[in-house]
Amino acid sequence: MLAGLTWLLVFQCLGEALVYLTGLPVPGPVVGMLLLFVGLRLRGAIPEALNTAATGLLQHLSLLFVPAGVGVMLHFGRVADEWAAIVAAIVVSTVLAIAGTAVAMRALVGRQAAADAPDGGSAAPPPGDREGPR
Amino acid sequence: MNAAPFTEIWVYLAGTPLLGLTLTLVAYQAGYAIYARFGFRPLLNPVLLAVLFIVAALAATGTAYRTYFDGAQFVHFLLGPAVVALAVPLAREWHNVKRLALPIAGALAAGSLLALGSAIGIAWALGASPATLLSLAPKSVTAPIAMGIAEKIGGLPALAAVFAVTTGIVGAALGKYVLDALAIRDWRVRGFALGLAAHGIGTARAFQVNAEAGAYAGLAFGLHGALAALAVPVVYWLARHWSAG
Fold it and tell me: Which of B44-53, B110-119, B176-185, B222-231 has the lowest mean pLDDT?
């Protein structure tokens, strides 16, 4: 756990340093993630300690958003003035993004499944076989 | 216990990071307990409940956000390592990702364009100010990345974080109903759509419903974050040059 967390921090530092040195307009943790991904692909396997730390951190992911969410306190004025535009933009665009992503992916997965099994054979199960109730 | 000693103790504790940190953990676990007690109903999102509890507590005691954040920053800080940690599920799922490269790339492009374009278009049509528009642009990516993007394009990072968290809560709360209405039953597709539109909060929701949905949500969350971090500043730069020239 400790070694895994250390690796995550080391890669975040590498990402931040690279952004600082190159002036890339990209957040440091994103570069850190890409570097770690490349490292893991080169290594071929995921170290157990890293796996434990990453899983633990991602399990409590939603907790980490609470302090930023409470920051709404600082912007009550702006949000109150423009609430209709903000609420409409967030709700409608989020619903559209979920629907558009799902419809596009379902269509492309279906096409690929059909292409993978030209004789209607047993290679890839149709998407319907993976379904669940909720 | 009368009011005066309570105020005194609160002021004393608020002087240290301990109070903000404890308040965050207690409020989140209270929110989560309510969420679990009512059968993980998506509308009772634990992040939403925790934020409401904390804002109410701070407002009732007249505590400033800055004082609260002195403690809460320790939780907030972990968002950075959590973004780095996304490399792990991505590397683990890579063989599946490669096989589904085309559907994933197509869904990523469609979803991120819809999320960005519709948010800015609607807010602009309803007369939102430029600072609000620029802070809305990165709302579908996770808060730390959204803050970084807003900073790069001239939005307000703290406001961008609030919009990102709100988007995550809205997506996690409404996703099930949208996907049910469209009769989407493939867990991979359901998870991917939630992670793309509602980043980490949607991913947390997807993991609570189904492990495969969670893995694909994490994948979409990571890919969309990386794509937006690379593309939004560039698109903004091009748009400015185009409108200026």
Answer: B222-231
Q: Which DSSP string do the residues of A62-124 spell out, in sequence order?
A: GGGGHHHHHGGGGGHHHHHHTHHHHHHHHHHHHHHHHHHHHHHHHHHHHHHHHHH-TTS-SSS
SS3 B226: helix
For residue B156, what is the nearest residue in chain A, using CA coordinates? A75
pLDDT at A11 over 70: yes
Quick one: pLDDT band at residue A78, thresholds 50, 70, 90? confident
Q: What is the mean pLDDT of chain A?
A: 85
A97 pLDDT above the threshold of 90: yes
B161 vs A97: CA distance, rounded Å: 19
Structure tokens at B204: 């947390």
CA pair distance B149, B141, nearest whole angstrom: 10
Residue B176 confidence (pLDDT) above 60: yes
User: For A89, which of B119, B147, B148 is closest by C-beta distance?
Assistant: B119
Longest dimension (CA), chain B: 69
Rounded distance between C-alpha atoms, residue B217 and residue B1, angstroms = 49
Please identify among residues 73-132 of chain B the ones whose CB lies closer than 8 Å to any CB of chain A. 73, 75-76, 78-92, 94, 100, 102-104, 106-108, 110-112, 114-115, 118-120, 122-123, 126-129, 131-132
Q: What is the mean pLDDT of residues A111-124?
A: 65
Residues 178-197 of B with CB under 8 A from A: 178-180, 182, 184-190, 192-194, 196-197
3-state helix, strand, coil split of chain B in percent (to 5) is 85, 0, 15
Complex-level ipTM:
0.86
> Looking at beta carbons, which residues of chain B come within 8 Å of A30?
83, 145, 148, 225-226, 229-230
| In chain B, domain spans | 3-77, 83-244
Is A36 an interface residue toward B (CB < 8 Å)?
A: yes
